[in-house]
Amino acid sequence: MMIMKLLYLPDYTFRWLGAIAFMLSAAATFAPRNVSAQAPTGPLKVRLVKVAGNWQLQRDGKPFYVKGAGGDGSREELAAAGANSTRSWGVDKNTRSELDQAHKHGLTMAVGIWLGHERHGFDYSNQESTSAQLRTTLAHIQSLKDHPAVLVWGIGNEMEGSGDNPEIWKHVQRLAVEAKKIDPNHPVMTVIAGIGGQKVQNLHKFCPDIDIVGINAYGEAPEVPERYRALGGTKPYIVTEFGPTGTWECPKNSLGAVIELTSGQKADEYKKSSQAFERDQQLCLGSYAFLWGNKQEGTATWFGMLLPDGRRTAAVDTMTEIWSGKPPANRCPVIEQIELTGPLKVNSGDRVQ
Asked: How many CB atoms lie within 10 A of CB 167?
């Protein structure tokens, strides 16, 4: 009966149906395709190779220099700024969706796996604790290893403390060995807080299976390439955090307070550090700026490259030009000078300029 009724539809109805079918077909044929937004299809092999004496990451057979930032700001805007990677500090229930978002926008991720800190009470001489941490680490790697956005594994972040405890490094070495058995497709990195003390020496001594050294550095960041070598560093490295001089590195004024740099002054520090990393073509594999987002630390704006409402600071303009090779069309305002006129100590209720 349905076929018979359709046969008696007016001619103009069929003409409209035909037109609609053609438009739908054309839309499907000519609609733009976002390749990076397609569903994950499997791991992309990342290799650490030496080319003409220089260390290099190769992703899917192509050279890959890390141009990234860590933080929870917009992945779309990070990619639009010219970055190609982001980093995390630990694995949680959101990590897979973060990898999906990175992949959607053509970004990779250095997947961080948090390790316990001695100063927080973790005992690296306790076999039960370290065995549990090993199982957790390997479970994370097993779960995420086939995602195409994975770039490297970042096992631990600043867990070494002073760097003098061999048990920490031996545990990191064990994790690296077991990680590679599960996932031979991605290098293994561990991240240290600066390069002071015996950190570089002990890492090289106790962790032969760590492929890449991750270094978090701020005021000392431009000096990392030279100092790392002077301390015996031979492994390739990624600067996993860099940004403005830290609150702990700044001199205090007569009030016992530290003065925050202006947005422009911070941008200059990002630039100086980035240029120092890029000059080290032998060992440096790239860097992650800190912080792509907003964070209350020292002040509400000390480290955040973005304001709470998502607006960018001058650091984003600078990194956009470094990452993409092109300056942004609409730059942030420049603060040339901001200071208090007169004495720093004033009475409550006084008017100051």
From this structure: 14
